Amino acid sequence: MPVPWPSLDATRRSSDLDSLRRRGVDVLVVGGGVTGAGIALDAASRGLRVALVERGDLAQGTSRWSSKLVHGGLRYLAHGDLGLARDSARERAILMTRTAPHLVRPLPFLIPSTAGRAAVALGRLGTGAGDVLRAGLPGGFASLPRARWVDQDRARRLVPGLRPQARGGVVFWDGQLIDDARLVLGLARTAAAYGAAILTRVQATSLGADGAELVDRWSPGQPSGRAEPSGPLTGVHQFSVEARVVVNATGVWAGELTSGVSLRPSRGSHLVVPSNLLGSPQAALTVPLAGSTSRYVFALPQLDGRTYIGITDEPVQGPIGEEDPSPDASEVEVLLETINTALARPLQPGDIAGSFAGLRPLVAGGRPSGSADLSRRHLITRDRAGVLTITGGKLTTYRAMAEEALDVVMAILGQEAACRTRRLPLVGAGTPQRLAGLDADSWLVARYGTEAETVAAEGGPDGAERVVSHLPVTVSELRYAVRHELALGVEDLLDRRTRIGLVPKDRAAALPVAEQVLAELSTV
Ligand SMILES: Cc1cc2nc3c(=O)[nH]c(=O)nc-3n(C[C@H](O)[C@H](O)[C@H](O)COP(=O)(O)OP(=O)(O)OC[C@H]3O[C@@H](n4cnc5c(N)ncnc54)[C@H](O)[C@@H]3O)c2cc1C
Fold first, then answer.
1. How far apart are CA 201 and CA 501, in angstroms?
2. Residue 391 CA, ligand 1 centroid: distance in Å
3. Quick one: three-class SS letters along 353-420?
4. For an engineered disulfide with 68, which of 177, 236, 288, 363 has Cβ 3.0 to 4.6 Å away?
5. Beta strands at 50-54 and 25-30: parallel, antiparallel or unpaired
6. Looking only at Cα atoms, what is the longest distance across the chain?
7. Cα(200)–Cα(6) distance, integer angstroms
């Protein structure tokens, strides 16, 4: 394992960019979401020279707007897609037991009896089948407890805000990511440990068989809070790079850089509410959407005292810009109405502290009745210019997608090297014993794993202070992000290295602290 882990910062970005311009690479990965970061790690750990370019920040796109579940594919079982369910369960076990046990925790899900007999019976059947599937996988049996029925008392202990009419419910277990953006960062930083150049604020404008045209969107010397130059991106900002293989991993934007990729994006939205409004649940409340047997609204408790309520599935038409998507009024209404059927104190619109939405890169070609039925499978394709595109799939299966993509890349290069990522721990990974023995706050251990002590030590005299009084995020995390995690602007700090920004009021309160840390540590 490469310890100490490399620091990604503005200085390393400059030297990596310089080296990319001069020497080129074997593999250029375009897109810094979970797909691109997973590919960069697979490629670098097979010994290839790799650069990843991302036009914004790491996890700028869909990969930070997910439900943050590493899930075993219950809905795929419901659709009879055993293959995808099995792949998902296998990848979940790999993440939870070997590659990122610090980032994924087991989370109980409760389907309360108030969901109705049919929903409860189907839930029991599906989760039981999931357990059987898991038991047959390496590491799968030990990774999570089995599904079971719980009585009223136990159900209310798991979700204290439950309606008194709930006589109990089905509890099943799945994996929950502490933060999807941190998984992407962990992949990128681990890839860097194997030599990959990780270049944010670098946009690809055209791709070809032997390289790409790139634009550097970060102007050296600018105040750190303003990452993007305001004028047109010309002159010194534009350059060409050579690469033996170019991989387009730009998610819902994949069709902008290549022909022959047909996507039907769908928006999924979440609301953010204070967890105490649901009685500070220990389990994810799981309520079927009216009229559906396989789609649920979840209330997902997070470690920072917030609960995310999602998810919707709305087909999106037309071109997709760079701005963040947001939920529309009807999605907010459906989410509140559905979750309220299970709560003693119904949530009101005024209880919503924040909201977020992301666009799924669904591959067209599934059943045409709506985006919920479109395939969650991925697509790997090579266009006439020789550019390899990989899109679709999901966060849970990023590693398997990367392995498959790299097998194709190796064939194109005419080289041989086996995939190593099944057993390759990400930065911060450690055994439960090692993590439990760390001398650091449990919040830091959950987000940084074995790096938690370093994060705490980096903080300086005010490092342990909270950035916002009611959230556990500390000033030391912001400093660590600038020094080691390639945070170049306040939005990186507030919206991706931490998730303070999910609640606008918290974001406003944290802004001066983030600006202060950046001003203090800016080197370029
Ligand atoms: C609401 C929602 C909930 C979900 N929940 C889950 C879940 O719980 N579990 C799960 O397993 N999956 C989930 N998914 C699916 C999962 O989030 C996505 O499949 C995955 O994040 C897609 O990652 P990606 O890297 O392919 O795309 P992205 O994360 O969008 O990455 C693409 C990147 O490419 C960059 N880019 C675009 N154009 C260029 C360019 N020209 N040059 C350079 N960079 C460029 C973008 O800025 C972006 O960062 C969910 C999806 C949604 C929308």
1. 20
2. 9
3. CEEEEEEECCECCCCCCCHHHCECCEEEEECCCCCEEEEECCHHHHHHHHHHHHHHHHHHHCCCCCCC
4. 177
5. parallel
6. 68
7. 16
* Ligand 1, pocket residues at CB < 6 Å: 30-36, 53-56, 60-63, 65-69, 71, 203-204, 249-253, 257, 268, 311, 358-361, 391, 393-396
Judge contact between 32 and 52, C-beta under 8 A: yes
> Bridge-partner residues for 474, per DSSP?
466
Q: How far is the CA of 53 from the centre of ligand 1 (A)?
A: 15
- Alpha-carbon span 431 to 445, nearest angstrom: 12
Instruction: Return d(Cα 314, Cα 331) in angstroms, integer.
Output: 9
CB 371 within 8 A of CB 383: no
pLDDT per residue, tens digit, the chain (524 aa), is 556 788 999 999 999 999 999 999 999 999 999 999 999 999 999 999 999 999 999 999 999 999 999 987 666 776 677 788 888 999 999 999 999 999 999 999 999 999 988 888 877 777 777 777 777 777 666 778 888 999 999 999 999 999 999 999 999 999 999 999 999 999 999 999 999 999 999 999 999 999 999 999 986 544 443 444 444 454 558 999 999 999 999 999 999 999 878 888 999 999 999 999 999 999 999 999 988 777 899 999 999 999 999 999 999 988 899 999 999 999 999 999 999 999 999 999 999 999 999 999 888 764 433 444 445 678 899 998 899 999 999 999 999 999 999 999 999 999 999 999 999 999 999 999 999 999 999 999 999 999 999 999 987 788 899 999 999 999 999 999 999 999 999 999 999 999 999 999 999 999 999 999 999 997 54
Distance CA 188, CA 337 (A): 39
Of 251, 242, 247, the C-alpha closest to 389 is 247
